[in-house]
């Protein structure tokens, strides 16, 4: 295959994970001709310094518009060969028209929908998981060769972001590590269930690696990660990096408790329901693969558990 992406347009490029993807691509700026960000007026107002910097330092083109404005998107696609979307969870369905427009565009050949997480087609049970429904619709459209015959796709499937996994971000029972108070909650009975994690920096590096390897990445879910570990190993690493003594306040959340909290959250319409479902899936082993695909895209160097813990310790000090 002779195709190499040269003119790339990003949706959600200044978001939580989009900014890591953009950073990685900017580190290889010379490999691309045009890098274009399609962003909202809100982002222009809130992140004006960042956008000015991107234009000035990296010659990134910034298009301001509404992703639901088809004429604006059509115009933005002119001359673009690859679209990388990192829109937030609330905007996953807005990618459906973006994909149809990309397919109709004479120049766009390749589309990365916003994935960067749990594999929504991991097992037959995945089809009925509530948080997966919008991403599954996006995949169904991209794989529908009648409706979308002219567009290749790549799903960058990374599992949970390690940076988020090692923090508390809600109920204590949902798991996490608190360095200041030497307090942790490990998911699974004895913290021994394996989990595959990717740091946010590595999500960027892996997406760039996919862009560099179109032949391997075309029409594929790339199941990649930084490392596989267990909550118990993470705990041991935190203890090692904080003086070598056992932490006094360590609790465990069993799968059974996760399932109960998940059911209660969906029942009450809590916004945390998605978090409980994902954590239950991860603790069941839903991030593990017999073989990861990093080698298909050049086996870029990845961060380690030591790096993630040392960053969490640094942030706490
Ligand atoms: N693996 C994990 O642990 C993990 C964790 C979090 C997220 N993710 C995944 O990563 C992807 C990106 O998530 P994120 O958290 O990085 O996104 P985010 O920061 O919430 O949003 C990214 C961008 O999406 C655009 N957007 C436009 N309309 C939106 C809407 N209605 N709701 C939300 N965003 C909208 C905005 O860009 P503009 O203003 O520039 O238009 C926004 O900056 C998602 O697929 C998500 O599921 C994975």
UniProtKB/TrEMBL annotation:
Domain NmrA-like residue range list: 6-244
Alphabetized UniProt keyword annotations = NADP, Oxidoreductase
User: Does NADP count among this protein's keywords?
Assistant: yes
Is Oxidoreductase included in the keywords of this UniProt record? yes
The source's superkingdom equals: Eukaryota
Q: Name one Pfam family in it.
A: NmrA
- Gene3D superfamilies the UniProt entry points to: NAD(P)-binding Rossmann-like Domain (3.40.50.720), UDP-galactose 4-epimerase, domain 1 (3.90.25.10)
MF annotations from Gene Ontology = oxidoreductase activity
Q: What is this protein called?
A: NmrA-like domain-containing protein
């Amino acid at each position: 295959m002779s195709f190499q992406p040269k003119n790339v347009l990003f949706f959600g490029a200044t978001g939580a994970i989009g900014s890591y993807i953009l950073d990685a691509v900017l580190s290889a700026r010379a490999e691309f001709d045009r890098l274009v960000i399609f962003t909202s007026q809100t982002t222009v107002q809130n992140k004006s310094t960042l956008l000015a910097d991107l234009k000035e330092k990296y010659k990134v083109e910034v298009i301001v518009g509404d992703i639901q404005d088809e004429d604006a998107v059509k115009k933005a696609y002119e001359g673009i060969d690859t679209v990388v979307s990192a829109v937030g969870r609330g905007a996953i369905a807005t990618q459906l028209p973006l994909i149809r427009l990309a397919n109709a565009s004479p120049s766009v050949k390749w589309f990365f929908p916003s994935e960067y997480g749990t594999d929504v087609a991991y097992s037959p049970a995945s089809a009925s998981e509530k948080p997966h429904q919008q991403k599954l619709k996006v995949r169904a459209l991209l794989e529908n060769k009648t409706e979308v015959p002219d567009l290749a796709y790549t799903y960058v499937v990374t599992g949970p972001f390690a940076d988020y996994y090692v923090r508390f971000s809600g109920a204590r029972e949902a798991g996490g590590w608190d360095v200041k108070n030497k307090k942790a909650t490990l998911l699974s009975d004895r913290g021994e269930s394996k989990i595959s994690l990717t740091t946010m920096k590595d999500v960027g590096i892996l997406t760039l690696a996919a862009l560099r390897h179109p032949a391997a990445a075309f029409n594929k879910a790339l199941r990649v990660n930084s490392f596989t570990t267990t909550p118990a190993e993470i705990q041991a690493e935190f203890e090692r990096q904080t003086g070598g003594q056992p932490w006094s306040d360590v609790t465990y959340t069993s799968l059974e408790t996760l399932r109960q909290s998940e059911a209660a959250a969906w029942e009450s319409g809590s916004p945390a329901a998605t978090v409980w479902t994902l954590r239950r899936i991860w603790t069941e082993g839903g991030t593990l693969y017999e073989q990861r695909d990093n080698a298909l895209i050049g086996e870029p160097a990845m961060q380690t558990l030591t790096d993630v813990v040392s960053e969490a310790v640094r942030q706490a000090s």
